Each structure stands twice: as C-alpha cells, then as structure tokens.
Request: fold
Amino acid sequence: GAGVSQSPSNKVTEKGKDVELRCDPISGHTALYWYRQSLGQGLEFLIYFQGNSAPDKSGLPSDRFSAERTGGSVSTLTIQRTQQEDSAVYLCASSGGWQTYEQYFGPGTRLTVT
Amino acid sequence: AQSVAQPEDQVNVAEGNPLTVKCTYSVSGNPYLFWYVQYPNRGLQFLLKYITGDNLVKGSYGFEAEFNKSQTSFHLKKPSALVSDSALYFCAVRGNNAGNMLTFGGGTRLMVKP
Reply:
C-alpha cells in the first residue's frame, strides 16, 4: 500500500519568508508525528497528533513553528519568518494508534533557508 | 527524560562477517525499543522493535537485536553482512508511560566492504 508522502521534497526559501510543509499519512493511521533531522542536532521530535486529542507540541523549538492536522489525516507544518538555523530535513511519520508502536516515516522535505 | 546513546559514529565490517551496532538507552518505566535504517536521501525505514517478551527480536533483512535490561542495551546484529547493508542506523526509545514520541540516538554509519 501507499506509504507516508511528503511535499515538497525540496524547498529553498529566503530568510524571513514563511513556508508550509505537507504530510499525507498512511491511510487509517490515527497518529502523526513531525521530526526534524539536522547535522548538528540529529533527529528531534517536534509535534505529535493522536486522533482528536490536543496535539503534543512539546518539541516545537519556537513559536514560529506550528502545525495542524485537518480531518484527522493530512498535516501541515508551518514555519514563519524562517531563519538559517531552520535548515534541516523535516520528517513526517504515522502509526496505527496507541497500541501500534512502530512509526512509518515519509521521505522528508529538505528545507534550505538562504 | 529519555535518551539513547550510539557510541560508534561508524562501524566497518567486511562482507560476510557478523556485524554489531551498539545502542544503550535510558527511560522511565519499561522501554519500547526500535531500530531504523536510513539510506541516502531517503526517510527512515523500520527494521525491528522490542516491546515485551523474548529478549531476542528478529526483523527485516536478516537483522536481529537483543534486549538486555540489566545493561540497558539493545544492540543490532546480523550474522553475515552484505554490501547493501551499508547505511545509517538509528536506535530509538520511548517509555511505556510517556507520549508516543521517539527519542533517537545520534546514528551509526555502517560500512560493509567487499
């Protein structure tokens, strides 16, 4: 079946611009996660959505970062007023829910802030 | 707080030889442990997990891992390495009483030489 998809695969933006990154989880998966992968920081958790519960935003690095998940499916991660330190690969993952432990990752969006 | 350590940045092994990639963890409560593999310009691919039960778990592509509670370790192993196993390997943990987010180790690059 189809896996997790993300778009765009690459995004180059100027410092100060806003960007939106999209994630389509595996159909039927109730949990969705965003992570960031960078050379200096490794893999970091950003935000987690589970069903209709309030998202866990504990990993968001600043208030410039936000995410939403519409209709329990597609998610958008928004970074406002991008900074060079935001350059990273943003990975989305989904899982089948509370009792399904492994997460399945998308290919990622490589964000470069110039 | 939970954490994962992968003490080796790189592991070199000859094709056909056994390989081990080390991982130790720290977490409150019982750990849920995972190994993922990342090929160049790709997302993370799930290899195997330990949730409960037998300490030796088997996963994809002939990989296995052994959970050792007393040593808080979850080393990844394969009896006979292939050149195609060359990739970046990540160990991850979550606690059973924490949010679903994964905490990743820094990754270990496995190089299998012909």
